[in-house]
Design goal:
Chain A: Pfam families: GatB_N, GatB_Yqey. Chain A: This is Aspartyl/glutamyl-tRNA(Asn/Gln) amidotransferase subunit B. Chain A: Belongs to the GatB/GatE family. GatB subfamily. Chain A: One of its GO terms (molecular function) is asparaginyl-tRNA synthase (glutamine-hydrolyzing) activity. Chain A: One of its GO terms (biological process) is translation. The complex is a heterodimer. Chain A is an alpha+beta fold. Chain A has 3 domains: about 280 residues, no CATH class; about 110 residues, no CATH class; about 60 residues, Arc Repressor Mutant, subunit A, CATH 1.10.10. Chain A is about 40% helix and about 20% strand. Chain A contains 16 helices and 15 strands. The longest helix of chain A is centred in the middle third of the chain and has 20 residues. Chain B is an alpha/beta fold. Chain B has an 11-stranded mixed sheet with strand order 1-3-2-4-6-5-10-11-9-7-8, with helices on both faces. In chain B, strand 7, helix 8 and strand 8 form a beta-alpha-beta unit. Chain B is globular, with a radius of gyration of 21 Å. The model of chain B has no long low-confidence stretch (mean pLDDT about 95). Chains A and B meet through strand 14 of A and helix 9, helix 10 and helix 12 of B.
């Protein structure tokens, strides 16, 4: 049997400042070493000041994953020498001398399977190493400390996964979850990083590190399972080791460093006094947490009668479900959900595209109302939406500038049908013989009206004329 | 001009324009030039800046502009407390050229009250030692007899105040580092309650037990400095709010009717006979003032030195890991080194005492030994705290000699770390428990060497502690340093 466990590092990207100082938590796209201060650069004499908001956000993750939160939490120093670590120790949490990390003993269900969460801990991200040079001789290592001290939550699962597919599903659900509770944007580069450990039967545990994306995690695990199984088949013992995912060659490679043997000499961090959390603050944090994805889906189904598929898609995407919640009213909810899930999500399926959308809740609700009032066909509605998304113009302006208004009065439609009858004598004759070909004529009318003619009225008049 | 006046006397004279700040500072600098050749209290002297500041303050006083309450008082600062623009070396080659880009909170508070920093003073490397012999820049000598050690690790602070090279100094006290030099140099030194003073900008050695502490000629001076540097700091999570207590107020309340416990474990075996008789004499003088003195036994004290060196070394091994010479330090090219080789080569430049403690600390924290040493030491700490809590139910103060022995000769104990460690027996208790303790100069031995008496009070009882220290100070007549 295959057993897989995960260690997921998730940055709290929604915080304004780092874990122990007031430098920005968002370090991306800045001049190297410009987002640092004496504290996150670890200068002599500097002291860490705990960001209380980070504790709250980490507590939210713990609650969302059903973890226990202890009365008191504490911090430890993990000592090791590495150039990306300004103090040569990392301030983190550690449970070996009693549970003092922000969460422990949680669980999450995916596809009917329960994945146990061993612990959740709050810690600081190290800096970033940048390698330059082409050959071993010219190679230099540069260090950028802009990231050092960014608040990071480590989520450690029990080895409860049996397949890489389960891991992938879990990671997607987890990403949606942290995004939904507003603690992290998991799609930012490096915001969510995953290490896996994997063993076959009673065999040794192999750790896989350096995996860049969720889909690569799945691939790396697949590769590793196959590798271990073929070793077992040939009677070769799987070594307990750390392997790195080689993205270019799509294989895992043994990393020669003996990280397992490292002694981190954990020590309580006396510069940060024990933080009392207590039931009262947990209750308060609970009130600040948004509706969970599961509860939201349930609400969509029971209150608006949305099909389960639509409710799932909508509720797990924070951006679109927020837009839905702000745009709909009792009458147009179903139409709004249609517009969002069938048209809008198609226009903007990536983070970048979502950010570019110039759409407001008013756009969506106006659009739904116009369609429901029969002032706009669904086809024209889609065109209007496309324009609003690009320009941010109001619906009325878009309708007039693109001339999308509905043509539903029988007089105007009849005039157009007369024109079509003149141009399409052969088709008219055919339709008189065979009523099934009538759609060709409907199409012609639609083309002439640019899709604005009401399909039902058009069909009605056509039938009358053909039978007369 | 009398450089022997106290800091508070200086303030009252400068405030009224009775003395020129510039002249006083100039003479102080002159004195440093002359005296420091012999005692070597200073690592860095900041003459030009000090004189410019003094001029500016004189101008402010003359034009009746608002002036900070130090009125240009010349002070020295231990070289492990950050001063923006002025080197902070920690008396180590590892920080030989380190200039902090920021002021420690205590430095900033003194500067904003118009204190003038004349220079940075010597210490045992990274404050590890009790004699100031373990400095990369060479030992500091006792101003009362230059063949003797000044105590440590804040030896530069004690010596510079005693030698009239400044009016007051800031030291740091991890296991007695303010009180030991105060005792050996015949000045007053306070180790405040853990959390009373911000440690922001104090280079960490053992961060769970150390505090910045004022060193000065009189108890009044110490109270005056404490008013400025104490209190909550938004840069230090471990500071407490002392609600702006005025430590100078009611300083002369006396100790009539108070109860004082004499700690049995601190006057027993190994104590110098002159120190013992000075202690007896101090007790009887306090009794004369109306205090009731009773013996108190704190048997956990017997384990205090072992617990102290375990905890302090463990924390030191972690606190000093950042000195890898990659971001700051001394000139040393990385050319030809792998990361680990470079770091271990760079770190071989720590001095012997620092190396000893880092190794000891790394050992007691390593897997399998944590429970055996570090946790056990923490238990001793809890025990000491519990015994002190019990004691303070019965008495207001505790008393002991600050140091069990007289100042000894330079070089005498440098090769015997264990003997040196044992001289901390009377001081480490205050650090392990967090309570405040003060060393008050009491008398001179038959050989002409200073003896200090230590008083303890319960946590955050500095005001009461200073009252008792003042009462004891008033019973003494001590020789003046020759000018």
């Amino acid at each position: 049997m295959t057993r897989i466990g995960l260690e997921i590092h998730c940055q709290l990207t929604k915080l304004a400042s780092k874990l122990f100082c007031s430098c920005k938590a968002e370090y991306r796209n800045l001049e190297p070493n410009s987002n640092i201060c004496p504290v996150c650069a670890g200068l002599p004499g500097s002291l860490p000041m705990l960001n209380k908001k980070a504790v709250e956000k980490a507590a939210m993750i713990s609650l969302a994953l059903g973890c226990k939160i202890p009365e008191k939490i504490g911090f430890f120093r993990k000592n090791y020498f590495y150039p990306d670590l300004p103090k040569n120790f990392q301030i983190t949490q550690y449970n070996a001398y009693g549970p003092t990390s922000i969460g422990s003993d949680g669980k999450m269900e995916i596809e009917g399977k329960e994945i146990r969460i061993r612990r959740i801990q709050l810690e600081e991200d190290p800096g970033r190493l940048v390698y330059e040079g082409t050959s071993e001789k010219t190679m230099i290592t540069l260090v950028d400390y802009n990231r050092a001290g960014t608040p990071l939550v480590e989520i450690v699962t029990e080895p409860d996964f049996e397949t890489p597919k389960q891991v992938r599903v879990f990671l997607n659900v987890l990403a949606d979850l942290v995004e939904n509770i507003g603690v992290s944007d998991p799609y930012l580069e490096g915001a969510m990083r995953v290490d896996g450990n994997i063993s076959e039967g009673d065999g040794n545990r192999v750790e896989i590190k350096n995996v860049g994306s969720f889909s690569d995690v799945e691939k790396a695990l697949h590769f590793e399972i196959t590798r271990q199984q073929s070793l077992v088949e040939r009677g070769i013992t799987v070594l307990a080791e750390t392997r790195h995912w080689d993205e270019a060659r799509r294989i895992t490679v043994s990393s020669r460093s003996k990280e397992e043997e490292q002694d981190y000499r954990y020590l309580p961090e006396a510069d940060i006094p024990i933080v009392l959390i207590g039931n009262q603050s947990i209750e308060q944090i609970k009130t600040q947490m948004p509706e969970s994805i599961v509860a939201r889906k349930e609400r969509y189904i029971t209150k608006y009668g949305m099909p389960a598929q639509v409710a799932t898609v909508l509720s797990s995407d924070k951006f679109y479900s927020d837009l839905f919640d702000k745009s709909h009213n009792e009458k147009n909810a179903k139409e709004v959900s249609n517009i969002i899930t069938t048209d809008l999500m198609g226009f903007a399926d990536t983070r970048e595209k979502k950010l570019e959308l110039k759409i407001t809740p008013k756009h969506i609700s106006d659009l739904a109302d116009s369609i429901l009032a029969n002032k706009l066909t669904r086809n024209s509605g889609k065109l209007a939406l496309q324009e609003m998304v690009k320009t941010g113009k109001a619906l009325v302006d878009v309708i007039s500038s693109l001339d999308l208004g509905h043509v539903s009065d029988a007089g105007s439609i009849e005039k157009i049908i007369d024109e079509v009858f003149k141009e399409e004598e052969k088709a008219v004759a055919e339709a008189k013989q065979n009523p099934d070909t009538i759609n060709y004529l409907v199409g012609k009318v639609m083309r002439k009206t640019k899709g604005k003619a009401d399909p039902a009225t058009t069909l009605d008049i056509l039938r009358k004329k053909l039978s007369s | 001009m009398n450089l022997g006046i106290s800091a508070t006397e200086f303030v009252s004279q400068a405030k009224e324009g009775a003395i020129s700040v510039e002249e006083f500072v100039a003479q102080t600098l002159e004195r440093i030039k002359k005296t420091d050749e012999k005692i070597h209290a200073f690592i860095t002297v900041d003459s030009q800046n000090a004189l410019e500041k003094a001029k500016a303050i004189d101008k402010k006083i003359k034009s009746k502009e608002k002036t900070g309450i130090c009125f240009g008082m010349p002070i020295s600062i231990k070289d492990n407390i950050c001063t923006a623009g002025l080197k902070t070396t920690c008396a180590s080659k590892m920080l030989e050229n380190f200039v902090a880009p920021y002021d420690a909170t205590v430095t900033a508070r003194l500067k904003s009250e118009d204190a003038i920093i004349v220079g940075k003073v010597n210490l045992d490397e990274f404050a590890m030692g009790s004699t100031t012999e373990f400095s990369y820049f060479g030992a500091t000598k006792n101003p009362w007899n230059a063949e003797y050690v000044p105590g440590g690790s804040s030896g530069g602070s004690g010596a510079s105040v005693a030698a009239l090279e400044c009016l007051a100094s800031l030291g740091s006290d991890t296991g007695g580092s303010v009180r030991s030099p105060a005792s050996f140099c015949s000045v007053v030194g306070l180790k405040p309650t853990y959390g009373l003073i911000s440690r922001y900008g104090l280079v960490s050695y053992a961060n769970s037990i150390e505090q910045v502490g004022p060193v000065a000629k009189t108890v009044e001076d110490v109270a005056f400095l404490l008013n400025i540097i104490s209190g909550h700091d938004t840069h230090d999570n471990t500071t407490a709010n002392n609600a702006h207590v005025d430590y100078t107020k009611d300083l002369k309340s006396g100790i009539s009717g108070k109860k004082i416990g004499i700690i049995s474990q601190m006057i027993g075996d190994g104590i110098d006979k002159d120190v013992a008789s000075a202690t007896t004499s101090a007790v009887s003088k306090l009794q004369d003032l109306g205090a009731e003195c009773i013996p108190i036994s704190l048997d956990a004290v017997e384990h205090s030195v072992a617990a102290y060196y375990t905890i302090a070394s463990a924390e030191a091994s972690s606190n000093l890991s950042r000195y890898d010479n990659l971001r700051y330090g001394f000139d040393f090219s990385t050319e030809g080194y792998e990361f680990k080789a470079f770091v271990s080569k760079a770190r071989s430049h720590f001095g012997p005492e620092v190396t000893r403690r880092m190794l000891l600390g790394a050992f007691v924290l390593s897997a399998g030994y944590y429970g055996k040493y570090y946790l056990k030491a923490q238990k001793v700490r809890t025990m000491i705290k519990a015994q002190l809590d019990e004691a303070f139910k019965k008495v207001d103060y505790l008393i002991s000699p600050t140091m069990p022995i007289l100042p000894f000769k330079i070089g005498e104990k440098i090769d015997d770390p264990l003997k040196l460690y044992l001289t901390d027996i009377n001081t480490v208790t205050a650090n392990l428990s967090g309570i405040p303790a003060i060393s008050v100069p009491f008398s001179m031995s038959s050989s002409g060497l200073p003896i200090g008496i230590q008083l303890f009070a319960n946590s955050f009882k500095e005001k009461e502690l200073l009252q008792a220290a003042h009462a004891l100070q008033e019973t003494t007549t001590l020789p003046e340093m020759s000018q």
